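Justification of resources, computational component.

The compute hours requested in this renewal are based largely on the per-chain cost of generating structure records like the one below. Each record pairs the submitted sequence with a full C-alpha cell output. That output is archived, and it is also reused by downstream analysis tasks.
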Amino acid sequence: MTNHDEAAAVRPLTLDWVSRHLEVGERVVKTEALHGGITAEMRRLTITRRDGGTRDLVLRTFVNVEHAEDWLNREAGALTLLTGTGVPAPGLVAVDPTAAHCEYPSLLMTHLAGRTVLDDEGLGTRVPLLARQLVAIHALRPAERPREYVASTTADTVVTPKGADVAVWAAAIDVIRQPAPPYEGRFLHRDFQPGNVLFDVPPTSPASPRITGVVDWAQTSWGPADLDVAHCSTNLALLHAPAWGLRFAEAYEKAGGALAATAGERLYWQVRDALAISEEVQQVALPWREAGRRELTTRAVEERLDAYVTALMDS
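The structure output for this chain reads:
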C-alpha cells in the first residue's frame, strides 16, 4: 500500500476489517488523509477492482473520543435511513462502533464526488442551495425517530470573547436561561454547515454549483428546524460575515422551510447555537485554516462571533 503521508496509513487491524468488507479480488492500494474533521480521522481509500478499475471508500475513525460508540451507531442508522430518500448521503458499507475488530471505533462508507467550498466567492449562489438542501432533510419522516436533540451549551459555560460588550453578552446569556420554546419536531442533521456539504463546481461555469453530498451524520437528532438553521447561520457568520448568518434564515423560509412562529422564539435558537460555538472557537477555526482560510485565526473568529451575537441581539 502507498501512503501520501504517515497520517494516511490505516492501522493493521482496521485494514484487515476493511478488507473483509470488500468484494472478492478487491484490495486497498492507496490511502489519503482527508482534512476538515474536528473529532474524527477521515481517510479516502482507493480500491482496485478485479477488472482493473478503481473505486473509493471513506474510513471514519474516532480515536479516544468519548461518544464514539453512540455517534457511530447514530451515523450508521442515519445512512441506512437516507438510502433512497433523494438526500445525497454516503452509503453505509460497515461499522464497528465498539472497536471489536479495529484498533478504534470506525465506519466505512461510500465516497461521494465533490468538495467542500469555504470561499467567499460565489456564496450568494451557494446559500439558496444550502437552504433548499436543509429543507429537504427536515422534510424526512423516518419510521423510527432519532433521539431528541441535546443542547450543547448552558448559560454557565458560555465563554464571552475578549473585548466583547459584556452587557450584550449577558443579555444573550439571559435569553438561553429561559425554557426552550415549544416546537414541532423535525429530522435534524445537527451539524449542517458548509464544511459538511460537498459541491460540484464546474470549471467552465463556476456560477452554477450543485450539491453532490451531505456528510457527517453522527449527531442526527429530533428537534426544531430552527436549531439546524441556527447552526448553519452561525457557521456562515463566522466563515464569511455576520450579515450572511442573518440572511440564512430568510433563505430557508424562501426555500419552503418553516421556522418558529415568533421573533423571540427564533432568537432563542439562534442565540443558543452562537453561544455554544463560544466554547469551541479554537477547534472550529482550525479546520477552516487547514482548508485554506488562513485569515480565520481564533481571534478573528471570536471577533466575528461577537459581531454576530451583537447583531442578533440588535435585531
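The longest strand covers residues 27-34. Residues 1-5 have pLDDT under 50 and may be disordered.
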